[in-house]
Every structure is written in structure tokens, then in C-alpha cells.
Amino acid sequence: MELTLIGREPRVFDGPRLPADATVLAELTAQVADADLAAPPVVLPDFHHKSTMELPSSVAVATAGTIRPTLTSASVNCGMALLALDCERPGVAGVIEFYRRVRERYPYPARNLRELSTHEVRRAAVEGSYFAAERFEVDAGELARVEEFGRLDLDRYGGADRLARELPSLAYQLARLRFGTVGPSNHFVELQVVEEVFDPRAAELLGVRQGQLTLQYHAGGGVLTGEIGALFGRRKHYPRHLRMAMAVQKPLYHLATARSYRQLRERLALYFTDGCPPVSRDSEEGQRLMLANAAAMNYGFAFRTATYAALKKIAATVFGGTGGRLVVDSPHNSIYEEEVGDRTAVVHRHNSCRAFPAERCAPGTVFAETGQAVLLPGTSRTSSYLAVAGPKAEASLHSACHGAGTLVADFAEKGLSAEHPDGHETLRFGYDGAAAVRVRHFDDNGVNAALGVLVDHGLVRPVARLRPLAVLN
Ligand SMILES: Nc1nc2c(ncn2[C@@H]2O[C@H](COP(=O)(O)O)[C@@H](O)[C@H]2O)c(=O)[nH]1
Ligand SMILES: [Mn+2]
């Protein structure tokens, strides 16, 4: 048997003005010390460690034969999307009305309204975005812009019937709530204008042009993704309501369905002790975990397709036009089986998005010409970028960072960034209904530094720069 030795040292994409933090690098290295790596772990710009997460952000890790849920968020399929609008730039009154309607549709705190029936939750878990497109009237052709067309095939992992037999009905009941909700803090709904186009051909293919209005949003995968994450181990982020739900769901899911004493003991050891141990991909438990992961991913895809439908409808009503077209929707917390080198590996991305080159995208789609579209947001006070996968994306396990928020803050703190000299402003809305406030923009030094690293290494090619006009967060 040929043995390939894989380096354990992370492959770090950083730069002199944005060096990856040595302490956080040491944490990452320690965390993957015993992992069956299929390639060196990848560290991207905006590398930092959030206290509620096991793994630092802006990371991709490929393992050869195990699934390691802690190498991504406990709730998979948090993601971002970009919508290209086809209307004139609205006045302030239009913007205020737009966000009033968004808050009305998706208030925060969310209503305890059942958005879906249990049958529909099952469909979302099995059919992903295809279910949501039918239910919320989105042209199925638009799903070519959603990663994996918004649906992972459950049949590879035991099928929908197995999921229906095993997942407790309480999981479906809770997942009827809050479907499509965006919410505040790092989640946002931002109106932008395309200020600069770098790659006119890619921009045209993607449906974006100079001066155009765009809408970018960041939303989680929803209740079912959190429940499934919690079923497979104890995670750092384990709020009380989830603990209460898990007290019932975990024994039903893992123990009541066990078919032998051996299986019962194995599941007790895997899912009822501290932490969240790795699971062998080729084992019965690995198959079951991949099935649950695919269902969670599908529900998350459906969730953001529902958000897309709602935002598009509101934009059409308030601004006129059709409400626009989807440019891209991609998760930044995911577990996929992908080709790495010459074998299939389990690729875990944590707060990093996939950047597949044209040849890995589905034939006949726009991404098969441009490469997968990649979003690199700055903040609501800086530009954000639309890019596509670059010629050397393989070097980063086909991954790019999902944002540059901490870099923008670091640059401002270190005096490497200052207020924008042209006096640009964003109209910022909150969920409390208070009057919006105007906030001054920074220069783009922070987000440009992140983009520069990705571009210099050939991981992405920039397509357009987007300046925020207004945001709800
Ligand atoms: N354009 C905007 N980008 C934003 C906003 N708030 C956050 N962000 C970016 O998103 C990423 C992801 O956030 P995270 O907390 O999940 O890491 C962050 O790094 C920022 O780049 C916003 O209002 N507008
Ligand atoms: Mn996210």
C-alpha cells in the first residue's frame, strides 16, 4: 500500500499586514493533532476564534476517513446570498418601507408562528431548495446559483425513509418555527450599489453591472440544523432551549432505535459523553451521521431559498421591477464529501465558503463558465466584493474566507484604516423599529487586504465591488 504523509502544519494564507494569530494557529494545530488529515488544514484571512465555537473561523479541514462535527459550526449551512435587483435606486422613503416590510415578515424576536407543516419540514430535509422553490414560488432555474442546487441526495446515505423512521417527531415540530428568519447581529440584509466592475464578462454572466442595486444577506440554516448538530455530541454552544429539546430527542434518536446492545453502547460512548468524538465515515454510524448532515444541509438550503423568495417579493412590491435574480447562495459552514487530490475526503468548512473552479461546476450553468461565485463581505461600513473561484483554489481546498469583519475592525484599531474621505454613509436599521441612523463609512483597507491575499494566491478573481446603502442587522 502506498503511504502518503500529510503535513499537519496548517497551510496559511495571510500577509504582512494581516498575519494569522500564532495563538489561534496553535489551537487549530492542537485540535487536528490526531485527525486523519487528507491535506494540511487551510487557514484563510479573517482567522479568529469565537468563544462559543470549538474551531477557529476561516478554516477548511479535509479528513480521509472520519467525520468530525466540531470542525464546523454545530448548525451547518449558515450562509450568504446576493440578489441583483432590476429597479432604479430607491429614495429614503422606499428604503424605509422596504425594511419595514422585511421586519414585518421576519420580526425579531421571531414569532412562535408555525411557518411550515411537519410534512413540509420533512420535504425541506429531503428536497432542500427544490421544496422551497415550489412552496414559495421561486423559478427552479434559479437554483443553479445555489451551491449543489440546494439539495444533497439522501439516497447515498440510507435514504429519506431511514431519516423519517429515526428522527423524532419533536425535531420536526420545532423545525416548523422561524423558517426563513434572518435576525440581527452578524446576520444582515444589506442594500448595496455596484460601484466598480473588475471583470465585465464574468459580471455580465452573473447578471451584475455597474450602478446596479444589489441585496446581500447572511442567514442561518434554521432550527433543524441546530437540532441535528446537537444530536451528535455536546457542543460549546448549547443554549438551554436546545438542552431541553435534546433531553427528549437524543435518547429517542440514538437509543430507542438501536438494534443491538453493541450499537447501544457505541452510541452511548459517541453521543452521550463529553465532547463530540470523530465518527468513521465507513461505519454504520458514519453513514447515519452523513444522512443527518445532508438533511440538515437541505433544510438550510430550503430555509435561505424561503428568505430569498420573501426578500424578492418585498423588493418587487416596494421598488418595482421583478424583484431581481439570485447571483449566488452559498453556505459557509458545511461538511461535504469532495475529491481532494486523488481520493474522496470529508471536507469540513468553518466560516469559509466553497470556491469550485469552472470545471467542478455543473455543466451548462453560469458557474461552469465563470467558476463558482464567492462573496467576500466587508462590513456595513465598507465595500463588499463579489468574486469567482480562482485558478489555484485547489491550494485552499477550494475555500475562501466568508468575510473580513475582524480585519476591518483590526485595521481601524491599529490606525491602518480611517473614515472614508468621500463621506459615504449607510442607513442602519434595527429590529426595534426605532428610526434608522446614518453611519459613516471606513476606507476599504481591511477588506482589500483580505481580498488581496485571496487574489495573490489565485484563490479567487474579483468581479465587482459593492458599496452599502442601507442595512438591517
Ligand atoms: N456587508 C456586510 N457584511 C457584514 C455585516 N455584518 C457582518 N458582515 C460580514 O459577515 C462576516 C460574517 O460574520 P461572522 O460574525 O459570522 O463571522 C463578517 O466577517 C463580516 O465580514 C454587514 O452588516 N454588512
Ligand atoms: Mn454565518
From TrEMBL:
From which lineage does this chain's organism come?
Bacteria, Bacillati, Actinomycetota, Actinomycetes, Micromonosporales
Q: Which cofactor does it need?
A: Mn(2+)
Q: Which gene encodes it?
A: rtcB
Question: What does the UniProt keyword field contain?
Answer: GTP-binding, Ligase, Manganese, Metal-binding, Nucleotide-binding, RNA repair
The UniProt record lists the keyword ATP-binding: no
The residues that cross the membrane are none
Protein name per Swiss-Prot or TrEMBL: tRNA-splicing ligase RtcB
Which leading EC class covers this enzyme? Answer: ligase
Which reactions appear under catalytic activity for this entry? a 3'-end 3'-phospho-ribonucleotide-RNA + a 5'-end dephospho-ribonucleoside-RNA + GTP = a ribonucleotidyl-ribonucleotide-RNA + GMP + diphosphate
Q: Name the protein family.
A: Belongs to the RtcB family.
Give the InterPro entries listed for this entry.
RtcB, RtcB-like_sf
Q: How is the cofactor bound?
A: Binds 2 manganese ions per subunit.
Q: Pfam families given for it? A: RtcB
Tell me, how does this one assemble?
Monomer.
Tell me its EC number(s), please.
6.5.1.-
